[in-house]
Amino acid sequence: MTISLAVGEKFMRKFKKVMTALAAVAAVVLLGGTATGAAANTGWRQSDAALARSLPGGFQSSYADVNGVRLHYVAGGSGSPVVLLPGWPQTWWAFHKVMPALAEHHRVIAVDLRGMGGSSKPQSGYDKETLAADIHALLAKLGYAKADLVGHDIGAMVAHSYGIKYPQAVGKLALMDVVAPDKSLYQLPLLPSAPGQFSPWWWTFNQLQGLPEQLVSGRSRYVVDTMIDQLSVVPSAVDDFDRNVYARAYYTREAVRAGNGWYRTLNQDIAAGSAYGKLTMPVLGLAGEFNHQYFVQVMPSKAVDPQVVKIAGAGHYLSEEQPAQVIGALTKFLG
């Protein structure tokens, strides 16, 4: 009987080890890696704190409780504050290629928006004015009455709303490839009429209640790959490591639901935006190959005296596809 128990315990220990290993392999595969390459490229499993420390400039990961949520942010450098706001399906890591250079002259603060990465994922509050209020409260808590803002994608929508709601708290404002939503979004074609025609399928998909959570949770790498490959001129610039960082951030059901919240409020955002006037502070629009002409046309209606700069050779993911150009444009604009 003693021998049987010992054998049984030994078997269970081996069984648990095998199951743990299989679970790890499954996670790597679902996040887009391979079992054979897992040991060589698992740095993306690091915490935000470790990722922050990997960047030159003394960056550190921190949290702040503001406006009813806990916001995660990564800060480094010294000088006048510059706030970086990323979009979907990414996190603060979207700016990792430009943060060290900006930190040479500024206090750089890259924030995970409400619902993103290490920040809280409440059931509500994903309209862009509430997200802007989150950032305003964060900066007040950090002791900054005024800051420059740089927003990309959803983050650009938030930055735009911030500039309208808190103009006295903004020095300069840069919008990357997206502006505040307005009624023109209702004219975007859901069904492409010709090969290659732009169709933002995810705007509708992410507004569905419940289904995205069921389909995407545990499979987030597929969404990350699709978005980057579809909207990039240089997809390889967002490499396997980066993609896994983003996939991990949207891996759970709650994370998918929270990220979709930014899209489920678009009608509310459009209604709020219909009352917006023009941004009065210095405004820079950075756009890639796909959106540059749109920015040239639309920015004069969004800001009093906007500048528009094309980031050549980039699609939507400007700071990752062409970081040197983005650094040059922001450095010139911000001073």
Descriptive notes:
This protein is an alpha/beta fold and 335 residues long. It is 44% helix and 15% strand. Helix 4 packs across helix 5 and helix 8 packs across helix 9. The longest helix has 29 residues.
List the keywords:
alpha/beta, eight-stranded mixed beta sheet, 8 strands, 44% helix, globular
Topology:
Elements: H1 2-30, H2 48-53, E1 60-66, E2 69-76, E3 80-85, H3 99-102, E4 106-111, H4 128-142, E5 147-152, H5 154-165, E6 170-176, H6 201-205, H7 211-216, H8 220-231, H9 240-249, H10 253-264, H11 266-273, E7 283-287, H12 292-302, E8 306-310, H13 318-321, H14 323-334
Parallel strand pairs: 3-4, 3-5, 5-6, 6-7, 7-8
Antiparallel strand pairs: 1-2, 2-4
Helix pairs in contact: 4-5, 8-9
Brief overview, please?
This protein has 335 residues and is an alpha/beta fold.
Side-by-side strand order of the widest sheet = 1-2-4-3-5-6-7-8
Total strands: the figure is 8
Q: Give the amount of beta strand, in percent.
A: 5-15%
C-alpha geometry: globular
